[in-house]
Amino acid sequence: MRHHYNKSEFANSFPEYRGVNAPYQAFKDNIKDFFRTGLGTSTSINASKGSENASYTINFGHIDEEGYVPGNNINRINFGLGGSIKLSNKFKISGSFNFSSSNFETPPVSANSGTGNFSVFARTLFIPRNFDLNRLPFQDPITGASVYYRKDQENPLWLLKTLKNQLMLTDFTTL
After folding, report:
1. Coil, strand or helix: which one is 95?
2. Is the pLDDT of residue 140 over 80?
3. What pTM did the predictor assign?
């Protein structure tokens, strides 16, 4: 069987594959190493104190999550401070301040039909067992384009490296 990269379009970028044949064999766990074990941590600290005439509360939280697709991460920090004081039987002042900062990063992970969209999941679903995803080049060293066994799809590793959605939010609220 002709090697996946023994094609005319790869001749200049990967001359080592010219004329190379590869045995038709299934590679064990050919996409297993693409994914990782997801991990999430959440930490929070809260404190409050009060008396008949005054009270306060303070809180801090941190969330850090790494998804099972490399490059899929969420990081959030929040801080809050609030209090009240009774000035008289008829008058009380209360207030609070909250701050949060979130950073969300992800490669293209939306579902699709296999072609037409950029989806890491769809690309890994259609990889044949005889394509060794993690041990073959995924990017053309000359053009920077995706290198893959199919012309109508991008290599999932190339998608991870070159396409990323990022959303950063910072929010302040006071009452």
Report:
1. strand
2. yes
3. 0.72
